[in-house]
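Hi V.,

Quick status before I head out on leave. The structure for the redesign project is tokenized and pasted below; the design run finished overnight.
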């Protein structure tokens, strides 16, 4: 299921079936994640966790178990990343449509954005430093 390209290098052949298989893996992981979170809410109504994040964790476990990236999943993920900017269109329309609210609540939102970004950077640096120390003091 490979096609020869120039110089004898082989590349996996991407077919509609492989793309569909990659998309099915993504959707199945999200569905199972949503189902697990919904079941968790039935057992503990105060349980709060995003289903898509649970699905991403399941995808991570799946990829760790497989030890390699399926061709269809790689192709589908590459394609989705290529059109990722389209996901910002609805939020931009919402900002234009609710411009008055954005102006009214803009300063507190901006403050929350700046503070959360700084906290994220501090936690990221702290995690990096802790892991660098943990890994026998090797510096990257």
């Amino acid at each position: 299921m490979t096609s020869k390209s120039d110089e004898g290098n082989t590349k996996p052949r991407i077919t509609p079936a492989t793309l569909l298989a990659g998309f099915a893996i993504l959707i199945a992981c999200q569905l199972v994640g949503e189902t697990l979170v919904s079941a968790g809410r039935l057992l503990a109504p105060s349980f709060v966790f995003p289903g898509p994040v649970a699905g991403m964790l399941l995808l991570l476990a799946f990829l760790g178990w497989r030890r390699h990236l399926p061709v269809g999943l790689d192709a589908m993920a590459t394609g989705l990343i290529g059109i990722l900017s389209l996901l910002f269109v609805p939020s931009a329309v919402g900002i234009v449509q609710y411009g008055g609210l954005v102006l009214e609540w803009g300063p507190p939102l901006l403050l929350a954005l700046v503070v959360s970004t700084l906290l994220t950077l501090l936690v990221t640096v702290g995690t990096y430093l802790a892991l660098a120390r943990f890994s026998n003091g090797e510096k990257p």
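Above is the designed sequence. The helical segments are 16-43, 51-66, 71-82, 88-97, 99-134.

G. will cover questions while I'm gone.

Best,
W.
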